[in-house]
Write a structure and sequence with these properties.
Elements lengths: L1 E4 L2 E4 L10 H5 L2 E9 L2 E2 L2 H15 L7 H14 L5 E8 L17 E7 L6 H6 L1 E5 L20 H12 L5 E4 L5 E4 L3 E6 L2 E5 L7 H12 L4 E4 L3 H5 L3 E6 L3 E8 L2 E2 L7 H16 L2 E2 L1
Bound molecules: 3-[O-phosphonopyridoxyl]--amino-benzoic acid (PXG).
The site of 3-[O-phosphonopyridoxyl]--amino-benzoic acid has 15 residues, from helix 6 and strand 13.
């Protein structure tokens, strides 16, 4: 496996950064999870744009252009000869001293790109649908750490994941600081009620899969809504599903013990999954 590390390709065993890296010491950095299907990188520009937006707010100067970043990602895929892949881009503020002051870092961010084979949830789960719960840990208040930042500080989500796991579930709904449904620990959430597709408007990451699903729905004349969403609305929905680069689109059939719709993946979810599969295998940056 060849890993991109600050402009060079190194073997996995040599892909190392300093223990003084502020990404390691403080979670001071940003990341992206990207997928390639059939030698096409899906929504490459959008992922790179989000990485630069997070870095901008964190005031980390990546010292490479968006174009150079896109080329580095594509080169990593080529170097590993992968047709289908999951790509992890990690950037950190780089080395500094033991204080948290970013001014005391040396101004050399670490840029790492790892491309690996895809691991998905079992196919069975896509056919049957998932059962999820709401957990006590709320999503970060946007005035503290904005959930729109895809930063290396993922403790908010990890604490929620632990709560889900402790109760025997693998995914969980997180509420926002006001008690509205925000998203799951690594996925956005959608519901369908009376043929209208809705997804939370605040307190969540602006997921690229989420944006793709909204686009696909609009193109197919499905009414869409971005709104404040309560758990009650989730419980009484006809269909529910989660979206994310890793999970793609996964149906949800039970939330907090309440059966959603028929208790099986619904027709609109199935249709959107089909459309998503098609677009990911035909659209993208060729390499
Ligand atoms: N919300 C959160 C909090 C995320 O981390 C999404 C939504 C979906 O966004 P995209 O752009 O991927 O549609 C994410 C991203 C994993 C894993 O291992 C998943 C994400 C990030 C890191 C790891 O499952 N999802």
């Amino acid at each position: 496996m060849k890993i991109y590390l600050n402009g060079k390709f190194v073997e996995k065993k040599d892909a190392k950064v300093s223990v003084f890296d502020h990404g390691f010491l403080y979670g001071d950095g940003a990341f992206e999870g990207i997928r390639a299907y059939n030698r096409l990188v899906f929504k490459l520009e959008e992922h790179v744009e989000r990485l630069y937006e997070t870095s901008h707010t964190l005031m980390i100067d990546l010292k490479m252009t968006r174009k150079e970043m896109m080329k580095a990602i594509v080169d990593t895929l080529k170097a590993n000869n992968l047709t289908d892949a999951y790509i992890r881009v990690v950037v950190s503020r780089g080395e500094g001293d033991l204080g948290l002051d970013p001014r005391k870092c040396f101004g050399n961010p670490n840029v790492i790109i790892i491309a690996d084979k895809i691991t998905l949830y079992p196919k069975e789960l896509y056919n049957r649908g998932m059962e999820i719960i709401t957990v006590p840990t709320v999503r970060n208040n946007p005035e503290a750490i904005n959930p729109q930042l895809k930063s290396l500080n993922y403790l908010n989500n990890i604490l929620a994941k632990i709560e889900a796991n402790n109760s025997g579930f693998s995914e969980a709904i997180m509420l926002d600081h006001q008690g509205y449904v925000a998203e799951c620990t690594g996925d956005n959430i959608f519901i369908i009620k009376n043929k209208v597709l809705s997804t939370p408007s605040q307190g969540r990451l602006k997921g690229i899969t989420r944006e793709t699903v909204l686009e696909l729905a609009k193109k197919n004349k499905i009414e869409t809504k971005e709104c404040l969403m309560t758990r009650h609305e989730v419980y009484i929905s006809d269909e529910c599903f989660l979206t994310g680069t890793a999970a793609e689109i996964i149906p949800v059939v039970k939330v907090d013990g309440r059966i959603i719709g028929s208790g099986k993946p619904g027709p609109m979810t199935t249709k959107l999954i089909e459309m998503f599969h098609k677009v990911t295998r035909t659209d993208g940056t060729k390499y």
